[in-house]
Design brief:
The complex is a heterodimer of chains A (about 625) and B (about 180). Chain A is mostly helical and about 625 residues long. Chain A has eight helices and no strands. The radius of gyration of chain A is 82 Å and the shape is flat. In chain A, about 10% of the residues are buried. By secondary structure, chain B is α+β, with helices and mostly antiparallel strands. Chain B is elongated. The chains are: A mainly alpha (about 625), B alpha+beta (about 180). The interface between A and B is medium-sized, with 15 and 14 residues.
């Protein structure tokens, strides 16, 4: 059996399992023992102790009954008590039997025998002496004497036997408890020791196993990471007989395969298409692909070789719809075919064009001669134009002078308008001051009217006073007569004053009407002045506009003069240019002759090209 | 002096002349006081009335009256005359010349003073002081009891004493 990973794991698990079983069985057997001890303690000691205490109780009751029997006088009562005594006897017998069966180990056998002896002695004495004495009336003293002499001592010995029983039960329970505790401590120590050993053994084995696996897999991980990065120089130093060893072997052979394939790819890259490729197996995808690649590249190389030899009739088969190289070759061949055909056509065209150029250069020579004559005519015309431009310059100067004169007149007009405006302003100020004076006059006449009102009031009051004076005079009788006359005179004066104030009021209202009219008139005058000023302003603006227009006209005339001057200069330049053209025409004639020679050379060249192109088979 | 005398009764005329001579021989004051009366001429509505000066205390300057509610229409209101509260009657209403109180701008109050009564009278206008001849007074014009007579055919002389003590002015009785 080889030690592969599964077996290793199984071995470790088996060791741990056996140890666990040992621990479990030890713990179970100890627990069972402790349980049996506890059960015994419960049955023998606890229940036994209960029965013994019942015995003690029965003894006490028995004493009481016997004493009651002795002390009671009624025979019925005594009978009843005797029945009770019989029942207690039966109880004691049952309890003794129970203690005997409960004492499985026979630890209390001696004590029980002692009790039974004491008990039967007491019963014999009681039934033989005390109770018969008590049953016969009047022998109470005898019965008591019996009781106090014999039975009392016996009852005490029975009680002592019961106490000894109880003590023996307690001792038995205590020793059993000690045994249980010892067993428990022993088994706990045993279980702990076995468990510790099992844990140490299991952890050591697991640690060994895990360390072996981890070391191997770490090497694998490093190697596969290098491979993923394309680094093929990997080595794995694992030689074990388990699955990890097998995995390391296959990893090593994979690295070798990849290194061989890389060498083949390198040869192809260097252009060596004869490198040997042997597939590792029928399923070797990479090896088969390399073989197909070399084959395809060899076919393409053969085709390129034929094209280089001038054979353009080669057909290239596409390896697949995605064959970029094949497609490029197809396009190259078709383009080369078109190119050669066009070259043949072009060289023929070149020959005919050379002939045409020859004919054209002859015609051009004739044209140049005609051009020379036309230039001479142009020169004469330019001279005439120059003379007329000079005349235009002079005219423009005259226009400018006239515009300047018009400008001066417009300035005078502006000055006159300014004076008129100032005069109008003066008139307006004066009219305003007249209006203000008249308003002041109106206010003063208002004041006069207020004064007149006061005077009128005074006249009224005087009238009233005169009336009252007349009344007073009348009341005074004869003595008041003279006073009445005076009062009458005062009244007449007051009447006259009132009449006068009425007159003054009439006059004042006339004055006020007149001043109102004057104020209206000045207002109208003021408005008239405003209208006049507006008209003058308008005239001033019109004159300004006119002066502006004349200024513009003068500027335009100046610009015309300047531009005509430029025209004249331009004409001179044209005359000079015409001379240059004439000279150039002479040169042109010479050049045309050279061109004719060049066309001849071109024709010869096209013939040679035709011969070259014909070498290609299309 | 328009007394018409029977031309036939010259003796009686003589007697009259004698009587006149005897009258002229009397002290002037008495004669005049019996024959003439100084009056204040007033305007009430469009008519002219006269009031004897002896019944008057004074003419008051125009002023505002304090009207009293729940009084007869002829009570024009109250007046404060130098601390004295004075009842003012609209004379035109009192004489039943019209129903409404005076609205004239020239309306004035005259203060009447008699032993029985002291009251203000509102008149439309105070005209002037004049002197009436009592003998020429037409006393039989058949007018009201308060009219003492008509002078010059246009001016009605008012008997203020009779007017103000008449039963119609029960208020005055209480005031008096």
């Amino acid at each position: 059996m080889t030690l592969n990973l599964r077996n290793k794991f199984l071995a470790v698990f088996g060791v741990v399992f056996v140890l666990a079983v040992i621990v479990g069985s030890v713990a179970t057997s100890e627990a069972l023992y402790i349980r049996a001890q506890v059960m015994t303690m419960y049955k023998d000691d606890l229940i036994g102790t209960g029965s013994v205490s019942m015995l003690s109780q029965d003894m006490l009751e028995m004493r009481e009954k016997v004493l009651t029997h002795i002390s009671s006088v009624e025979p019925a009562k005594k009978k009843e008590i005797e029945a009770d005594i019989k029942r207690i006897d039966q109880n004691v017998d049952a309890t003794v039997l129970a203690i005997k069966t409960g004492d499985s180990e026979g630890a209390q056998k001696d004590q029980l025998a002692k009790f039974v002896g004491a008990w039967s002695a007491f019963r014999t004495s009681r039934d033989a002496l005390t109770l018969p004495a008590s049953r016969v009336g009047g022998r109470v003293e005898q019965a008591l004497a019996f009781y106090s002499i014999d039975e009392n001592a016996r009852v005490h010995s029975v009680s002592d036997a019961v106490n000894a029983l109880i003590q023996s039960k307690a001792q038995s329970a205590s020793s059993r408890n000690d045994a249980i505790e010892r067993t428990f401590i022993r088994s706990a120590g045993l279980i702990a020791a076995i468990t510790l050993v099992a844990l140490l053994l299991a952890s050591g084995l697991v640690l060994l196993l895990v360390r072996g696996i981890t070391r191997t897999t770490a090497q694998m991980v490093t190697a596969s990471r290098g491979l993923a990065r394309g680094n093929l120089n990997q080595s794995i130093n694992v030689h074990s007989r388990d699955e990890l060893g097998a995995m390391a072997d296959s990893f090593r052979s994979m690295i070798g395969y990849q290194q061989r394939m890389a060498a083949v790819a390198d040869e192809i890259a260097r252009g060596n298409l004869s490198a040997p490729v042997q597939p590792e197996s029928p399923e070797d995808v990479l090896g088969l692909a390399f073989g197909r690649m070399i084959e395809s590249l060899q076919r393409v190389a053969a085709t390129a070789d034929a094209i280089a030899g001038g054979d353009l009739n080669q057909e290239v088969q596409l390896q697949s719809p995605e064959d970029v190289l094949g497609r490029a070759f197809q396009r190259m061949i078709s383009n080369l075919r078109t190119l050669v055909a066009e070259l043949q056509q072009g060289s023929q065209n070149l020959a005919s064009a050379g002939g045409e150029i020859l004919a054209a250069t002859s015609q051009q020579a004739a044209g140049v001669t005609e051009q020379s004559a036309a230039i001479a005519q142009t020169t004469v015309t330019v001279d005439e134009l120059k003379a007329s431009a000079d005349q235009a310059v002079e005219l423009a100067g005259n226009v400018s002078a006239i515009a300047h004169h018009a400008n001066q007149i417009a300035d005078e007009g502006v000055l006159a308008v300014r004076d008129a405006t100032a005069g109008m302003n003066d008139i307006r100020h004066k009219t305003q001051s007249i209006a203000e004076n008249i308003l002041a006059l109106s206010e003063q006449s208002q004041q006069i009217s207020e004064i007149i009102a006061t005077v009128n009031d005074l006249a009224n009051q005087s009238n009233l006073l005169a009336l009252n004076a007349a009344i007073e005079a009348s009341r005074a009788g004869e003595q008041g007569k003279g006073f009445a006359v005076v009062a009458q005179e005062i009244r007449l004066l007051a009447e006259q004053s009132k009449a006068a104030t009425a007159q003054v009021r009439t006059i004042l209202s006339d004055i006020q009407r007149a001043t109102n009219a004057a104020v209206m008139a000045t207002e109208q005058g003021s408005k008239g002045v405003d209208a006049g000023m507006q008209l003058i302003d308008q005239a001033g603006r019109t004159i300004d506009d006119l002066a502006g227009v004349i200024q513009q006209a003068a500027q335009s005339a100046g610009q015309i003069g300047a531009s005509v001057q430029q025209h004249s200069v331009g004409m001179e330049q044209i005359a000079v240019a015409m001379g240059s053209i004439n000279q150039a025409t002479g040169l042109n004639l010479g050049a045309t002759n050279h061109t004719r020679q060049a066309a001849q050379d071109l024709t010869d060249l096209s013939r040679k090209l035709n011969q070259l192109v014909d070498q290609y088979q299309v | 002096m328009n007394v018409e005398m029977d031309i036939a009764a010259e003796q009686r005329n003589e007697q009259a002349l004698l009587e006149r001579a005897r009258r002229f021989a009397q002290p002037l004051v008495q004669t005049v006081s019996k024959a003439v009366l100084d009056v204040l001429l007033l305007r009430l509505g469009d008519e002219q009335y006269a009031v004897g000066l002896p019944f008057l205390r004074s003419v008051l300057p125009p002023q505002e009256l304090t009207s009293i509610p729940c009084t007869p229409p002829y009570v024009a209101g109250l007046l404060n005359l130098r601390g004295e509260i004075l009842t003012v009657l609209d004379l035109a209403v009192a004489l039943q010349l019209r129903d409404l109180p005076s609205t004239s701008k020239s309306a004035q109050v005259i203060l009447v003073e008699m032993p029985q009564v002291r009251v203000g009278l509102l008149v439309d206008e105070v005209l002037t002081v004049d002197r009436l001849c009592l003998e020429t007074l037409d006393r039989n014009f058949g007018g009201q009891v308060w009219a003492a007579g008509v002078a010059g055919g246009t001016t009605v002389l008012l008997d203020l004493e009779r007017l103000l003590t008449s039963d119609r002015f029960a208020v005055f009785d209480e005031l008096g």
